[in-house]
Amino acid sequence: MYRTFVIVSRQVLVESKFSTVICAPVFSSGEGLSTQVAVGPEEGLKHASWIMCDNLVSLRKADLTQFVGSLAKSKLAELERALKIALDIL
Hints:
Blueprint: E1 4-7, H1 11-14, E2 20-27, E3 36-39, E4 49-52, E5 57-60, H2 73-86
């Protein structure tokens, strides 16, 4: 069993020599909070799920081994807003 994550670190960090990146976990259930982003098959997932921006974690790049999908520009905008709300920087 594995967990799906969305990498939320800026691209320069992802491409750097740092061994970790900041990620938001994806869960199969959510409450529709302003800090959660609905995703699903359109993004490469098997079923409707939620990106949880209140549960950010630092993960080793080496542990992120399976590419699942990507977010459209509109979904990235939703994610950016949810992250700003979760981090209280809106």
